[in-house]
Amino acid sequence: MKPTEFSACHELEALLPAYVERSLPAAEAERVAAHLPNCPNCQLQVTQLRALSDDLDAALPEIPRTALRANFMAMLEQQKQLLKPEADVPAPIQAPVQPEAKVVSMWPTAVASNWLRVAASIVLIASGVFLGRNLHWGNAGNGNVAATNPEKPAHVELAQALNGSKSRTVSASDRIQLVTNSTKAPQADDNTVQVLLNTLNFDPNPNVRLAACEALYRLRDAPGVREGLANSLPIQTDPNVQIALIDMVVSLRVHRAVPQLQRLAKKADALPVVRAQAEAGIGKLI
Predict the structure, then answer these.
(1) In this predicted model, what pLDDT tens digit does every residue of 126-140 receive, in sequence order?
(2) What transmembrane ranges does the database entry give (predicted)?
(3) Residue 69 burial (CB < 10 Å; 0-12/13-18/19+)?
(4) Can you give the pLDDT at residue 129?
(5) Predicted pLDDT of residue 156
């Protein structure tokens, strides 16, 4: 591809989602339409965007009929009336509901173009739905995942809590909470960074690895974090974690990650959205 053609592709890339949705102004739509016949790369992206849009349309939930919703609301109101306490009996005091722990992204996402962020969000939302349906957040016992032992260094206690023991298996939700809380402790140090890097590279659950990514980003100024994030790129296979790591190393300007990004951009078994994200990251770091 000539330099002028690459520049045109890079400039028009952000317009492709709106072009597929037919929401571009006429002048820009004509510009994209004139560019597409001579650019196989942009043609491929348009094809992928259209397929993604069709999949989303097919996955939209069916809206219940008006009569069904009305009947449900009437039944709900009837049950609420039956559950009301008698006038002379005080209402029972309900225990406060503990909020669910959430993994919230802490790094900028300006690297990806609009359609890449849409695709990545769909993957993350699907993972969140699965996590919410299959995992129980927190410890049902006393509300603490692991009691703090002042006689043990923080990183030793964290590693032991994450690994569990032969008699006690640590659930994925508990490991996420442990990883998230590890950066809140005042004694978070280089050893804690190493434990988080081991979790990022070797934990079997992608949601735990994603939580470790975010914890390491919060410790981004600690020695070894940026190099560890770059070295983790070729290890990861889950698209959530791959996209998160790409965004992080680009946001932190980790130039030593360029070779790993180049290999990921050419990796045959990586998702197209991941390869495109890696290519965009290379352009930002070079």
Answers:
(1) 554 444 444 433 333
(2) none
(3) exposed
(4) 45
(5) 76
Neighbours of 68 (CB within 10 A): 10
Q: Read off the pLDDT of residues 206-218 as tens digits, 9 standing for 90 and up.
A: 999 999 999 999 9
**277 pLDDT band (50/70/90 cuts)?**
very high
Q: Which of 45, 105, 129, 104 is nearest to 245 (CA)?
A: 105
Instruction: Kindly indicate the confidence band of residue 168, based on its pLDDT and cuts at 50, 70 and 90.
Output: confident
CATH classification for the domain delimited by 114-285, as one of 1.25.10, 2.30.38, 1.20.930, 3.30.70: 1.25.10
60: tokens are 């939209």
* Per-domain boundaries in the chain: 3-58, 114-285
What is residue 101's predicted lDDT score, i.e. its pLDDT? 47
